[in-house]
């Protein structure tokens, strides 16, 4: 277990659209939640959804089978790895998370500041 089920930021019954709608309603930079990923893929079990600068970013959370750890986004050399999804959240509440806009090829960064609950 990734240590997500008891967390306020985990939206258990929530799809991509519900998550995005909830974040747009919050309209606060650094608003976030974690949802189950749309594809039923054990290597990418969750998605971190972040609101920043009037945009919503869906960042895949990968599970690395060989080390039983988690990492954000696509695999890259020297990436940060965490023992639980909760550690990813705690880390990025303290240190900025880089947000990459693949459409406009721009980079932003924000900390995870406001937990959004999906109603």
From TrEMBL:
Residues 9-116 form the SH2 domain. Pfam families: SH2. The keyword Signal does not apply. The keyword Acetylation does not apply. Keywords: SH2 domain. It comes from the Eukaryota. GO terms for biological process: cell surface receptor protein tyrosine kinase signaling pathway; intracellular signal transduction. GO terms for cellular component: cytoplasm. This is BLNK protein. It comes from Oreotrochilus melanogaster. The lineage of its organism: Eukaryota, Metazoa, Chordata, Craniata, Vertebrata.
